[in-house]
Amino acid sequence: MNITFQEFLELYDLREEDLQEFSVLSNLLSKEEKETIGKRVRDFVFLYLPRSAKLLYDMNLKNAFSGTIEKFIDVSMLNSQLALTYSNALARIHRVNIDIPPDDFLKDYLVFLKNILDKVKIPTGKEKTFKKYIFFLTAIGFYIAITNIKETIEEIETDPITKLPLHTFLCSNFSELVKKRRTVVLLDLENFKEYNTIYGYRIGNTILSMIAEILKTFFEKDIILRFQNDEFFIFTDKSLLETRNVLQKIRKYLQENTLILADKNFPIEIRLDFTSILLRVENTEFPDPKYLLWILYNKLKDIEDKTFEKMHIVSFSEQEHYLEVFKTMLTILNVLDKNHVLLAVQPIVNLLSGETVFYEVLARIKTSNGIISPNSFINYVNDNSIEEKIDSIVIEKALSLLKENCFDKISINLSFNSLKNRFLWFLSRINDSKDLGEKIVIELVERRNPLHLKSIKDKIETFKKLKMQIFIDDYGTEYSNFSLLKNLEIDGLKIDGAIVSNLGKDIVDETFIKGTLEIAKFQKLSVVVEYLETKEQLKRSKELAKKLDYQDLLAQGYFFGGSVHRTV
């Protein structure tokens, strides 16, 4: 059903004469205050709403965005008819031209309202009018969001393909499901994506329907859900052992009965298998589905070899471990939401001259129980893809240190995820200050296989144009390897501390360091040896550099000073 904005307001008993009163509020905000609100909302978008930020950048609307907000404040206060027209135009642009995600819009709009409330000092006697005005602005936000919904939103609990309940059923019936069942199974169908991609969704949907029917046959009286894509959940009264036996029968059935599906003029042989995670839920309390899902999906992620053993039971000790990790994750997320991230800085020193070249900015998580060391939280951050958020907070605080002239030069860790998703926001922060780039060293951190190297190279080229230096962090471990050195235009490497700690002890690690210095000399790169903590490590580092006549060896570690907390 289409509804005009006028009709929408009438639903909430807001009439034209009410809107006309807003003209008396025109002087409550100065030009400077409106500009500040516009810029703050723009900054919020570029920090927290990357999809919307990219659209604004792609359409060259970065500066126009804050100007649009200033204009909207004016028209909504001075002319109610203009505001009606403007809101309808916003809805059309939002839906058709820009297609900003509705959830992004609502977050952005709520920040706009908060800034209005923070800035306006309401004169005596105008409180009632101001309340109406804020209600009016709130209504506009909901009107635009509703205009974007093309179909009536219904909570669908049945999958139209398999006729099984969906994840919404799990959320709304979780307590009953867990209370009345002994075992839960996460079943992950293998090779489905390949079949779906090669032969199309019709064959893919047929496979899902057939698997659903097989599961219903073997788990006749149990609850089976299609959770997402090629994953199924089974809530059963059977014990762990009984459930395992049934799953083995299903696997045997699939192995002995190749599915034959017709595609146009030729038959397709479908060979299916699955990996399953079994968890005993009998007499176990889970506050909500998130805890259960966390355990099952983390167990699935931890399975190193899925090709040999297909069924895995979550032990009690594993369950306790996953729940402990989950609680730590919730603590970290809570800290990030409240921005309780501390900065620490550590000097990076030239080994030959002894001079400090720059300082690395490090993150520390502050909780009610004290500060969590980086070794305690860094794996959680990396494994659960929230490094973007912590990167953004650290970058914001680190740039403040530079703008306050606390340091001449700093290095900032930037994950490949942040480089991919927060690049435009980061550029906007750099461009706010002149010549800030030449004071920044970017330390690229990658603990997963980096994809789309071409896109990364393009972004690094942009950094280089702003006179930033680029270092590869943790070089020699995981994915911080020779491929990055060979393919990216960098200025330096940081050899991982696990390798540096073996200087004078391990011939392989020492040979690796020597080889890295030879390459760095040829490529005219700087090298930082991390975690340098002993006189022996310092001595061997200098000897290697001297033997190769390598002049640009830097060091970082407690031998030159530990990390020092800085307040921003």
Fill in the keyword field for this structure:
single chain; 568 residues; alpha/beta; Globin-like; Alpha-Beta Plaits; TIM Barrel; 3 domains; eight-stranded mixed β-barrel; five-stranded mixed sheet; 24 helices; flat
Description:
The chain has 568 residues and is of the alpha/beta class. It has 24 helices and 17 strands. The strands form three sheets. The protein has an eight-stranded mixed β-barrel with strand order 8-9-11-12-13-14-15-16, surrounded by five helices. Helix 24 (535-547) links the parallel strand 15 and strand 16 (553-555). The two termini are 51 Å apart.
Strand order of the largest sheet: 8-9-11-12-13-14-15-16
- How does the helix and strand content classify structurally? alpha/beta
Our Rg estimate from Cα atoms comes to 29 Å
Q: Residue-averaged pLDDT, rounded?
A: 80
| Count of individual helical segments | 24
- What about the largest sheet? 8 strands, mixed, barrel
CATH class of the largest domain: Alpha Beta
Beta percentage is: 15-25%
Helix and strand arrangement:
Blueprint: H1 5-11, H2 16-20, H3 31-48, H4 50-58, H5 62-78, H6 80-98, H7 102-119, H8 127-147, H9 167-172, H10 174-179, E1 183-190, H11 192-199, H12 201-218, E2 223-228, E3 231-236, H13 240-256, E4 259-263, E5 266-270, E6 273-280, H14 289-302, E7 311-313, H15 316-337, E8 341-350, E9 356-367, E10 370-372, H16 374-383, H17 387-403, E11 410-415, H18 416-421, H19 423-431, E12 440-445, H20 453-465, E13 469-475, H21 482-487, E14 492-495, H22 497-500, H23 507-523, E15 526-529, H24 535-547, E16 553-555, E17 564-566
Parallel strand pairs: 6-7, 9-11, 11-12, 12-13, 13-14, 14-15, 15-16
Antiparallel strand pairs: 1-3, 1-6, 2-3, 4-5, 8-9, 8-16, 8-17, 9-10
Helix pairs in contact: 3-4, 3-5, 3-7, 5-6, 6-8, 7-8, 11-12, 14-15
